[in-house]
Write a structure and sequence with these properties.
Layout: H1 3-13, H2 15-23, H3 27-38, H4 42-51, E1 59-65, H5 71-84, E2 89-94, H6 106-112, E3 121-126, H7 132-148, E4 153-159, H8 163-170, E5 174-179, H9 185-191, H10 194-197, E6 200-203, H11 211-223, E7 236-238, H12 247-264, H13 266-292, H14 295-307, H15 312-324
Parallel strand pairs: 1-4, 1-5, 2-3, 2-4, 5-6, 6-7
Length: about 325
C-alpha cells in the first residue's frame, strides 16, 4: 500500500483511534497524522483542531542559517544533549535542497547514527513544495502534532535564505542562527535579516579558524542595537558541531532563552501572537475557498464583465465590498 492509500484507509474509520494512539506516544500514529496534515486532508485538520488544547508546552526552537553552515550537524548534537537530559524531542527538517545536491538528509543521518531506534526522538523532513505561506503554516501544524504528543523540545531546521524560511523562524520561541567564518556568512546574514531574527548565534566550524573574528564582529553589530532594559541579549557562541564542541553551551543558551521568555511573560505572548497568525491564515484559506465557489461572487464578476469598462481592480473591490462592506479609506 502506498502512504496515501494507507492514509485513506486510516481516515475511513480510525480517526479517533489515530488521535488516541498519537496521544499515547505512538510514532506511527504521529507519522500518519503528519501525512494527513501535509496532504491537506480534512482528517488532518480535524486532528489539529481536537489536539490544539494539548499544545503550548513544548519549546519550539528554529535553527536557521546558510546552506552548509552545519545546521543539521548541530541539530543532531542538540538532540543528543536533550536526550541525555531525558527530554523527548521532535525534529522538523525543512530542506529545500534536493536530495541529489544536498547531501545526506538529517533523517537519514540520524537513522544511521547514535540516535537510531531511540523512541524519544521523532524526525520528519518536510518538502518545500507549495506556496510561501504554506511552508510556514505546515511546519507550525506539524510542530503542533509533536507538541500534543508531549515532546518537550521541537527543533525546526530551515535554510535562512528566503522570506518563507524567516517566517518559519518567526513561528519559533527561540531562533538559533548558525553561521561559519567562511564564505562571508556574516554579511549574508545581515542582508537576509537573520541578525534581527536570532536569539542565539552560533559561529560554527570554529575548528577551521576565523571564528573569533566573526564572533567579535557579530557581537559588535549586535551591540549597536538599542534594547530596552532587561531585554534578551543574544549571545554569540563558537562551536565545532561536527566534533560536538560548544554544543552544550548552545543548549544552555537555548534553555536560558526559554527561561527568559517565561520569566518576562513573552512565552505566553508568543503563543497568543502565534494563535492570531494561525487564525488569520485559516480565515484567508477558508475565505478563498468559500469565495471562489460562491455563485454570488460569480454574479458580481459576470456583472463586471457585462459592464465592459470595469477594471479588475474595481471588480475585486466589488467582490470584497459584497463580503465585508466598502473599505473605509479605499
Ligand atoms: N570542519 C567542520 N565541518 C563541519 C562542522 N559542522 C558541520 N560540518 C560539515 O559541514 C557540512 C555541512 O553540514 P550540515 O550539517 O549538512 O549543514 P547544513 O546545510 O547547514 O545543515 C558537512 O560536511 C558537515 O560534516 C564543524 O563544526 N566543523
Ligand atoms: Mg541541513
Amino acid at each position: 500500500m502506498t502512504p496515501s492509500h494507507q492514509a485513506a484507509v486510516e481516515a475511513a474509520g480510525e480517526a479517533v483511534d489515530l488521535e488516541r494512539r498519537l496521544l499515547a506516544g505512538e510514532r506511527r500514529a504521529l507519522a500518519r497524522a503528519m501525512s494527513l496534515v501535509e496532504d491537506g486532508r480534512p482528517e488532518g485538520e480535524r486532528l489539529l483542531r481536537d489536539l490544539f488544547a494539548r499544545t503550548g508546552a513544548a519549546h519550539r526552537v528554529g535553527v536557521t542559517g546558510p546552506p552548509g553552515a552545519g545546521k543539521s550537524t548541530l541539530v543532531e548534537k542538540l538532540v543528543l544533549v536533550a536526550r541525555a537530559d531525558g527530554m523527548s524531542v521532535g525534529v522538523l527538517a525543512v530542506d529545500p535542497t534536493s536530495p541529489f545536491t544536498g547531501g545526506a538528509l538529517l533523517g537519514d543521518r540520524v537513522r544511521m547514527g547514535a540516535l537510531a531506534g531511540d523512541p524519544g526522538v521523532f524526525i520528519r523532513s518536510m518538502a518545500t513544495r507549495g506556496s510561501l505561506g504554506g511552508l510556514a503554516a505546515a511546519s507550525v501544524e506539524l510542530a503542533d502534532l509533536l507538541d500534543a504528543q508531549g515532546r518537550q523540545l521541537i527543533l525546526v531546521e530551515t535554510v535562512g535564505v528566503g522570506q518563507s524560511e524567516l517566517e518559519v523562524a518567526r513561528a519559533a520561541d527561540t531562533t538559533v542562527v548558525v553561521l561559519t567564518p567562511e564564505s562571508g556568512d556574516g554579511i549574508q546574514a545581515m542582508k537576509a535579516g537573520l541578525l534581527e531574527a536570532g536569539d542565539v548565534f552560533v559561529v560554527n566550524k570554529a575548528d577551521r579558524g576565523g571564528a573569533d573574528k566573526l564572533r567579535r564582529s557579530l557581537e559588535a553589530t549586535l551591540s549597536w542595537r538599542e534594547l530596552p532594559d532587561g531585554a534578551w541579549r543574544p549571545p554569540v557562541l563558537n562551536a565545532a558541531a561536527v566534533k560536538g564542541e560548544g554544543v552544550t553551551a548552545v543548549a544552555d543558551a537555548v534553555a536560558a532563552h526559554r527561561a527568559h521568555l517565561q520569566a518576562t511573560g513573552a512565552w505566553d505572548l508568543l503563543r497568543r501572537e502565534r494563535w492570531r497568525t494561525r487564525v488569520r491564515s485559516i480565515v484567508n484559506r477558508r475565505l478563498a475557498r468559500r469565495l471562489w465557489g460562491d455563485p454570488e461572487t460569480e454574479a458580481i464578476l459576470e456583472q463586471a464583465l457585462a459592464d465592459g469598462a470595469r477594471s479588475p481592480y474595481e471588480a475585486a473591490d466589488a467582490v470584497l465590498d459584497s463580503l465585508v462592506g466598502p473599505a473605509a479609506n479605499g
